[in-house]
Amino acid sequence: MALFSRLQYEKSVHDLSELPTSRQEIAFAGRSNAGKSSAINTLAGRKTAFVSKIPGRTQLINFFRIEEGQYLVDLPGYGYARVPEAVRRHWQATLARYLETRASLVGLVLIMDARHPLTPLDRQMIAWFAPSGRPIHCLLTKADKLSRGQATRTLHKVWQELAAQGPAFSVQLFSSLKKQGVAEAEAVLAGWLGR
Ligand code: GDP
User: Where would I find the EngB-type G domain in this sequence (predicted)?
Assistant: First the structure.
């Protein structure tokens, strides 16, 4: 059975004090509009996200149950330009604290548009989480928008830069539109969960 086929929405939290108890968590982070919701739905094999997406307003951390004690955590998209400064600061501090301190977080999936990988905010997420020593898997989404040659070059470039930072990094091409890269992503995440 596919890794996330039983994925079920459980709760949304606004503040780190409301986080549920968990044994293992995999967090998904990415710039707003990078394709994070689509990627989660593609991995689940159906539409799971129900929270309406109004950037800057409905910024919640969404918990989806994978199995007992295991969660997929959908973090609020970052980088949306029209968010008030105070809201942006609050969410950046929340993301930093979550990535730096969440003990049950076994790995981070970083969603990046294959046409614009490794923006300054993506690098910020890496800087917050990498010191934990836990793995970061990058999905270069919307790969269908690039030619095969462009996609290969982008993959190689991102891989070269991240691999130089240590063995905890991996990267792949992904397309929710073409269902490309699903098995590859599942294999990595299943490994994190000890499956
Ligand atoms: P999020 O804000 O990161 O959750 O992004 P969404 O998943 O809502 O996607 C943002 C936009 O990109 C939507 O219009 C999607 O239809 C589109 N999109 C997402 N993934 C893909 C993909 O793999 N290929 C293409 N061509 N478009 C995509």
Answer: 22-195
**From the CB of 144, is ligand 1 less than 6 Å away?**
yes
CB contact set of 67 (below 8 Å; sequence gap of 6+) = 6
The more confident residue out of 59 and 85 is: 85
Domains, the chain: 8-192 (3.40.50.300)
Most ligand 1 atoms within 8 A of CB, residue of 33, 36, 38, 145 to mutate: 38
**How much distance in Å is there from the Cα of 136 to the middle of ligand 1?**
21
Confidence of residue 19 (pLDDT cuts 50, 70, 90): very high
Measured in angstroms, how far is the CA atom of residue 24 from the centroid of ligand 1? 27
pLDDT band at 50 (very low <50, low <70, confident <90, very high): low
Listed in sequence order, the DSSP H helices in 33-174 are 36-44, 85-101, 120-129, 148-163
Show the tokens assigned to 1: 């059975």
* Residues across the chain: 195
pLDDT of residue 82: 80
Q: How far is the CA of 23 from the centre of ligand 1 (A)?
A: 30
- Cβ(137) – ligand 1 distance below 6 Å: no
pLDDT per residue as tens digits for the range 113-124: 999 999 999 999
